[in-house]
Amino acid sequence: MSEKAFQDYYQDHFSHCYGCGRLNEHGLHIKSFWDGEESICIFHPKPYHTAIPGYVYGGLIASIIDCHCTGTAAAATYRAESREMDTEPSVRFLTASLHVDYLRPTPLGVPLEIRAKVKEIKRRKVVIAALLSAQGTVCARGEVVAVHVPEHLMSKGTSQDLTRAKRRRK
């Protein structure tokens, strides 16, 4: 695995996501890395991520698959372009489609492993397939269609706009 997570390359204005944003103090802070041709994320659910006692909430499963796959889409695009993730122009993705099949209840109290593979990479979109496992047992599978962040959202002003909006709500 590489030393630095995909998400650690994101500029500050792209680091507020609840799932993967390092600047979101309440977020999940998932970290994704290459492991050969697959990407991997290990996530440790907290006791409050409960659906029913002993099992992980399905919305959390969808969130970590989603963020892991959009991070993988960015990393795969850089890799396809033979570029490092800290080079310009920046490449970031948003979710156009998220599909999750819950195959069996996911136990709480054990690390969850999410492995993803690129199914398709095109100019404006990347399709990623993911498997979420607990203790070697696949509990969910997902597919994400990730699209490039539109140019008007790529500006650094986006973060400032979010901060101003938060102030107005208070």
SSE string, helices as H and strands as E: EEHEEEEH
CATH homology-level superfamily? Hotdog Thioesterase
Strand order of the biggest β-sheet: 1-2-4-5-6-3
| Distance between the first and last residues' Cα | 42 Å
Percent of residues in helices comes to 10-25%
**Count of individual domains:** 1
Uncertain parts: 157-170
Briefly note the CATH topology name: Thiol Ester Dehydrase, Chain A
CATH architecture term: Roll
Number of strands: 6
Description:
This protein has 170 residues and is an alpha+beta fold. The protein has a single domain (6-169), classed as Thiol Ester Dehydrase, Chain A (Roll). The chain is 21% helix and 30% strand. The chain contains 2 helices and 6 strands, in the order E-E-H-E-E-E-E-H. The protein has helices spanning 58-80, 157-169, and strands spanning 33-35, 38-43, 93-102, 112-121, 125-134, 137-148. Strands 1-2-4-5-6-3 form a 6-stranded antiparallel β-sheet, with helices on one face. The longest helix is centred in the middle third of the chain and has 23 residues, at 58-80. The chain is globular, with a radius of gyration of 16 Å. The N and C termini lie far apart (42 Å). The relative contact order is 0.18. Residues 157-170 have low confidence and may be disordered.
SSE layout:
Elements: E1 33-35, E2 38-43, H1 58-80, E3 93-102, E4 112-121, E5 125-134, E6 137-148, H2 157-169
